[in-house]
Amino acid sequence: MVAYVSNKIAVNSTLGFSNVMGPVEEVQYDDNPVTHIIPTSQVNYMSMVVHFISYAGEGKLIALVSEEVVPDPQQFCQDCADALQLMKQAIHVFAT
C-alpha cells in the first residue's frame, strides 16, 4: 500500500518541495571530506526536474531538462540563480 501511494504521489506531482536544510559546515564520510552534494534523479515521464540544495553555506542548483521544453538550459539556470538573488535581496530588505 505504501509503495502504491508513493508511486501515485510521484507520478501525479508537478511540483514538490522539501525544506530540510543541509549541514552548515562540511562533513566527512569515512574520514573523507564531502565537498559537494549533488542530488539527481532519473525521471522518464517529466521534462523538467530541478534540485536546489544548501551545503556548507553554499547553494547548488541542479536542473535536468528536456531541450524540447527548455531550449537553453544554461540560460534557465542563470534565470533561476538571478531569481534566487532577487529573493535574497527582498528578504534582507524585509528583515531591516
TrEMBL record:
Domain O-acyltransferase WSD1 C-terminal intervals: 5-88
Assigned GO CC terms: plasma membrane
UniProt GO BP: triglyceride biosynthetic process
Origin: domain of life: Eukaryota
One Gene Ontology term of the molecular function aspect: O-acyltransferase activity
PANTHER family linked: O-ACYLTRANSFERASE (WSD1-LIKE) FAMILY PROTEIN (PTHR31650), WAX ESTER SYNTHASE_DIACYLGLYCEROL ACYLTRANSFERASE 4-RELATED (PTHR31650:SF1)
Stated name of the protein: O-acyltransferase WSD1 C-terminal domain-containing protein
